[in-house]
Amino acid sequence: MGDTSRFYESVKNKYPKLKDGTRVHLWPKENIIIGPIYDEEDGYKKSIGNVDSLSWKQIVILAECDGKNTTDDIINILSNRYRNIHNMKEKVMEFFMFYENVYLTFEDDIQTLSSVFEITGNKSYITPLYFTIEIDGDNNTNDYFSEITSLLNCMYEKGCRFIEVIGEDILKNKSMREIFQYMLDHFDLIVVTKDSFTIDRSLIKELDNYRHKVIWKVYSKNDDTRIKLKEDIKITSLIKRGHTVVRGDREKAIKIEDMRFKDTKERFSKYGAEWSHLYISSDGSVKSYSFQKDKRVYLGNIFNNSVEEIFLEMQNKIDKLEIVYQ
CA 298 to CA 287: how far, in whole Å? Predict the structure, then answer.
């Protein structure tokens, strides 16, 4: 009580404000909040920041933190709105103390622009946070590029913002580059899995602006010493420029501990946020991985079924315990 009282005195006339980029992702049984981490030195936003689950009451508190109301204003607004909840002041202050500098800051002055969080997902079915997609580098038709772009846009809109892309030619022909650029411009994190590391030097420079959101996963087993040396030189160049490169086997899923975002590993695992959440093959077939049964479960085909139909089928199999995440 003493701690919250002292904290209240220090922030009662300040303006709680959400950090830019904070997002609430809804699942049927969870409300997941994802907040960015800012690198003060380099001045860019890291892709994966703080992750936690919130109750609806906590989300309601967070929604009032728009930088327009003081702490006292928010307490009064919530007290008048929810008269049946006792000790509103203490509950709000405990919440503010816990999440200060995580999802919100306290500003001395009223903010010119309101800060709001984005809401993705829904309470009817699980919308996965991550998905893996295989790109068919041999398919150069406009219809294919249109289908893939439409799929990526739909997944993004529904809240699937972390993507692993598998395909050897995504950095080569123009149309594939445009698809990759769409990923760079929209998604929060892109894992690029390749069995060889062929990348133009000019492209490496272009990718510097995205180094905080791209992880290169290379599983090359090339025995040619000359080719391997060329790969190593390019990989070393990327690492020196601040990029993340992970070496590993193709069959082995990339793990949170392989990344520079180690502090989020336990919380991501707690909420079932794993890389093999949803796997889209190059032929369009969609499968989801069940931890308990150690198998991939077929959900449909992205070229024949809508994304929503696939998510509903996934939720149906979760309800029947054919898919178990935790």
Answer: 4
